[in-house]
Amino acid sequence: MEYKIKLEKPARDFNEGFLLGNGHTGAVVYGGIQKEVIELSEITFYSGEVSQENNQKNASEAFKTMRKLVSEGEYEASMEAARGFMGIRRNYGTNLPVGKLIIELPDGEVTGYNRELNLMAGIAAISYTQKGVDITRETFVSNPSKKLFYKIQSKETGFLCARIFFEGMNDNVWVDCQEGEYTFMARARESLHSDGTCGVSLLGRVSAGITGGTIEYTKNGILIEGAESISFTLALSTDFETSSDNQNKIPLYSPSTNEFLQEQNLLMRGRGFDFDMEKEKHSKDFSAFMRRVDIDLPEDFVTGLMFQYGRYLLLSSSREDSPLPAHLQGIWNDNVACNIGWTCDMHLDINTQMNYWIAGPANLSECDAPLFHWMEKKVIPSGRITAKESYGLQGWSADLVSNAWGFTAPYWSRNISPCPTGGIWAADAYLDYYEYTGEVEFLINRAYPVFEEAAEFFTKYVFKDKESNYYTAGPSISPENSFEVQGTSFYFSNGCTYELTVIRQLFTNFLNMAGELKKDTPLVQKVKEILPKLLPFRILKDNTLAEWNHDYPAKDSQHRHTSHLLGLYPYSQITVEETPELAQAVKNTLTNKLFPYENWEDTGWARSMLLLYASRLQEGEEAYFHIKEIQEKLTHPNYLVMHPPTRGAGSFKEVYELDGNTGFTMGVLEMLLQSHDGKIRLLPALPRAWSKGSIQGIVARGAVTVSITWENYRMKEAAFLSKYDKEIRIEYSMGKAIKREKPARTEQRYSLKAGIWLRLREQEGVLQQSV
What we know:
The structure is a single chain. The protein is an alpha+beta fold. Helices cover 28% and strands 26% of the residues. The strands form nine sheets. A nine-stranded antiparallel sheet has the order 1-6-7-8-9-16-13-12-11, covered by helices on one side. Strands 2-3-4-5-10-15-14 form a seven-stranded antiparallel sheet. Helix 6 crosses helix 17 and helix 11 packs across helix 12. The longest helix has 23 residues, at 369-391.
C-alpha cells in the first residue's frame, strides 16, 4: 500500500516541512515558491570534544558515603555528599543544525499547489502552475550515493531562474567557489553546552546541472538564468572520525590551507550526475526496506500512515553505515533541542531505547548497527572509566545521558544522578537484535561480552538490605521524578523500582545467554545466586505499584516519566497472565497518573508509553484512546510527534523528538502482535475502531516473520515464516475488541520448517492450519 503525506501549502517552519535522510545527512524541505528552504543537518555535526575527566577524582568514595547516609535515612546529608560524586560536564556539546540551503526562484501567481512525501520511496515532490507553466520539484537524500539530490522541472524552455546559496547558523562559516562547484564550510560552535571553542568541521559542496540557459558559480551562490530544468547535488562531510582536542580548536582555515578540505575534496565531487539514475538507485534502496512491512487499516488511514512514518524516520536516521546512532531528534535538528538545557544528544533514560525498539519487530534490524558501533567504540570504553572512578567497580556502566563523544559519567546535577543503569538499558538492543534475527554469531561475539562485563559491574553494585535480607541497589534516581520528606524534595534513594527492574532484566538476559552458549563461569553462578534474591516489586496501600523502597509520596504524582513501570513494558516481568496482582497495580498507577486528567504532564514519548502499557495490559480501547490523543494534541501538520514545554522539561517552544513517532509505531505493533515470554500473541489489543485490517511482514521474537489479516474482529488468516526449523507457541483471543467479558484464549504449538510458510485460519475461536 502506498503511504504519502500530502499538504497543500508550503511549510512555514520545521514542523510543517518534509523530512528526508540517509543516515548521514538530514534535510527538511519547506517547498516554498519564491524561496525554497532546505534545512540541513548532519549526524556527526556536534560541538564539544572527547574528555577523559568527566568523573570526579574521589567520586567512588562519595558514592559509598551517599549509600550509607541514604541507608540511615539521612537524605539531606546524602545530597550534600553528592557534590563530590556528580559528573563534570566540561565540553559536553550538542548536535547542531548545519544551516540552510536556499533557492531563490521567480515570483508570480501560483495555482494548484501540492506537495507530498512518499514514505515508501523516500522522495519529496512538489507541483504547481506558475504563470501558466507547470512546475515540478523532487528531492531525496540517497544512502547509496551519500548525497542530496534536487530537481526543478518546468514545461517551458527558458522559464527558470534561480540563485542557490548556503546560509549558516553562526559566524563560523565561509563560502567559496572553485572548479565549478559552490563550497561552504561550517564549524560546530556554541556556548550553552560547551565553551564555544570546540566541535567538528563540516564541508559542503553543491554542484548543479541545467537544461538550457546559463549557469555561473560565485561566492554569492550558483546563478542560473533561462533554464528549462535545474538539478543539483549536495554532499556533506565532517572530520568527526579524525577530530581530536587540538584539531577541534584550530582556527577556521581558508581552503588553501585547510588539510581537512583537501582530504575531502575528491571524495565529494558531484559533477556529471544523472538525476533520474540516482533517483532510481535511491528508490530501489529505500523502498526495499520500507516495503518489507505493509499495514492496512481501512477505517483508520492516519494511524497506518503514522505507523509507517515511524519506520520511515528511523530508517532515514540510522543506516548500517551511519557513524552515530539516532540522537534525540533522529538525524534532524529543529534548532530548539540544542538551545535548551536537556539538549540534542543520546538520552539513556528512555529516549535512545525508544528510538530503536521498533528496529526488530518492524523488520528494520539493520538500523541497529550504528547503535552497537557507538556503544562498542565510545560508550563501553568510557563506561569502564566511569565504573572505576565513580563507583569503584570493575565492568562498565553509563548514566543518564551520553553524546557523540561517549560521555558516561553521572549527570552534572544532583537532581538526576546517580543512574548507572542507563547504559545497560540501552544495551537491551543487543538481545533484541539476536531475538529478532537469530544470528548466533552476533550473540557469541558481540552481545554476550557486553552483558558479561555489565554483569560484572552490577553483581558488585548490588548489596544486601539488612532489614529484608534481599539484594537491593543504589542510591539511584527514579528517572526523572522525586519524592518528598517533610516538605523537602529528594531525588535518589536505595531500592528504586526502576533500577532493580533493569538489573533484574540484565541478570535474566545474561543467564539466558549463558545457558544458550553453555557457559558456566563463576560470574554465571554469582548471578544465579543474586537474581532470585533481588528486592521484589511492592504494592502500596492504595494498590499502586511502589516507585521506591519507602512510602514517601512523589513530588509530582502526574510526572511524565513512569520508569517504575518498565517491568510491564518493555520487559515482561509483569504480565496479565502470570502476575495479575502486579498488573492490576500498574493499572491503578496509570489511573492515578491521569487524574485529574488536565494535570498529566503530557508529551509525545510519554503518551506513547501509555499506549504501550495499555497494549501490554491487552486493553485495546485504552490503547486506541492514547493513539487519538497523540494525533489530536501532540502531532504537527507533517506528522512529527512533539514534546511541548512542560513543568518538568521546560523549553521556549515545543521540541521534536524521534521517540514520539517510533514509540507510536511500537504501540501499534504491540496492539497487533506480542511475542514476549516465548509466546506469539495475535491481535492482543484490537480496538473496536479496527474491525478489519491487515499487517504483513512484521517480526516476532525467534526470527519469525508474521502476517495477519482480520475481518469483523475475527482473524481471517495468520502466516508465519522462520529462518530456522523451530516450534512456536501461538495465543489467540477471539473477539477481544467486541466482548467486554474476558474472552477465552486459545494457545497452540506448531512446528515451522525453515523457509516454508505456515498459514492458519480461525474457525470458532480455534486456529486451524490451511494449505
